[in-house]
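Hey, can you fold this one?
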Amino acid sequence: MDFIVWIFLRCPENYKVETSAQIANSFGYFDVVSTSSFDLESLSAAGFPIETLPEIVSENKVIGKLGRSLFGLPQGCNLVVPFGDTQCAFYSAIKLNSEKLILNLGTSCQLGKILLPCEVEKLSEVDAALQIFPYFGNKQLALFASMNGGNVFRAITEGLFGAFASKLASSP
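Sure. Predicted structure:
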């Protein structure tokens, strides 16, 4: 994601890599619940060059201007820090009602909900299948482990198709 932003900015030599907590979390060694930052102590102890890590900034931070007209966007429009794809998928479905439980079917399958602050600590220790991700507005997104693979999608599709078929068959 940061590489794409660098290209959109016309590849400046003095580019300082900045990212959102959503993207930083995908790197690993990231504490979502307590500090919303990298675990620098563990990374340093493992010999990882922590100076190469991006700076984590607010998801609404403008990090530059589009260097040229691209995909119908005018040159000079604001570019903000990159977001996570799953967070964006949930944002579009939950924008007006964060109390919803959403099933997201894409290259994987997730069942998720935006957490209230009081829910974060309770849920972070519930089940290894539950993962907590940074979300917009300093909130967290709780996701149950994705169900991957063609057999899972086939079973879901057959189940949904079967349910709809039986409903249609029983309709007058």
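The beta strands are 18-19, 30-31, 37-38, 55-56, 62-65, 78-80, 102-105, 109-115, 130-134, 140-144. Let me know if you want another pass with a different chain boundary.
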